[in-house]
Amino acid sequence: MGTLNARCAELFELLFDHTDSEIVHEYSTSFLRLPSEHFDAVYPLLLSYSKSKVFLQSPGYFCQYVLPFTKKQPAKCVQLITNFDKFVKSDMTRSNYYGEAPMQLVLSIYNGLVIVKKNLK
Questions:
Q1: Alpha-carbon distance values, 108 to 59, 93, 99, 101, 113 (Å)
Q2: Which end of the chain is least crowded, N or C, by CB within 10 Å?
Q3: Where does residue 66 rank: exposed (0-12), middle (13-18), buried (19+ CB within 10 A)?
Q4: pTM of the predicted model, to two decimals?
Q5: Pairwise CA distance, residues 110 & 18, whole Å
Q6: What does the alpha-carbon distance between residue 96 and residue 55 come to, in Å, rounded to a whole number?
Q7: Do 14 and 53 touch, CB atoms closer than 8 A?
């Protein structure tokens, strides 16, 4: 995939500041349908999303989407976790339960960076 359509990005970013559970759920589950081959094209949008209020409510599926890219593109992935210290508390009884997904992503990015460093030597 080449580039991201500017209008599509604008529409996707439209409700980033909302915390309504239904809106959060729709954003969160959108990563289940996003093909992995689109990662580079949508990276600017992923970066914006990772700084949004809606992301902080429910980061689980986003983390699962990014996880496969941590070995080949760890430096890009690091940029996506800059707000991990601001998450809303996970709650199993609500749709924002994210379990260990953020921690798995952080560890995988770290491992990817270690591999890159070893390859540079």
A1: 16, 27, 16, 10, 9
A2: C
A3: buried
A4: 0.80
A5: 31
A6: 10
A7: no
